[in-house]
Specification:
Keywords: Coiled coil
Helix content: 55-70%
Number of strands: 0
Order of helices and strands: HHHHHH
Strand content: under 5%
Distance between the termini: 92 Å
Radius of gyration: 30 Å
Largest sheet: none
Number of helices: 6
Length: about 140
């Protein structure tokens, strides 16, 4: 039975790129399986084999630090993956903004209704209300 193919420099580059873009929970099992998929030959390397490559080892450490920092910044470790926590925070902010905009819209609708009522009470016609604005003379 043939052993695993040796990692070529391009394979090491790919592993570093994968780690640099990693956004979910980082485990050796997940990473090694993703690397096997990306390399296309189907072999899942062992952690020991991967750690022989200094560039991959450093990229791993950087990815772990980066993901840990993201979790710390978000402050929601209990919500799972840091990207999910960030998305939840953004969703909450969007919902808050939507509530503010809805309130503003409701206030403008109420104002319009008051103006419409008062215009009708004072005998203003729709054509008068929709007349184009004249430019002030200089």
């Amino acid at each position: 039975m043939a052993g695993a193919p040796h990692l070529k420099p391009n394979d090491v580059d790919l592993a570093v790129i994968i780690l640099a873009g990693w956004t979910t929970k980082l485990t050796w099992d997940l990473f090694l399986r993703q690397l096997a998929l990306e390399l296309g030959h189907g072999h899942v390397y062992s952690k020991v084999a991967i750690l022989k490559h200094a560039r991959i080892k450093e990229a791993w450490n950087q990815a772990r630090r980066r993901l840990a920092q993201e979790v710390k910044e978000v402050g929601e470790r209990g919500q799972g993956r840091s990207i999910v926590a960030q998305l939840r925070r953004k969703l909450d902010e969007a919902r808050d903004q939507l509530a503010v905009e809805r309130e503003r819209n409701n206030n403008l609708i109420e104002q319009f209704k008051r103006w419409q009522y008062n215009a009708e009470r004072h005998g203003l016609k729709r054509s008068q209300l929709e007349a184009k604005l004249s430019r002030p003379s200089k």
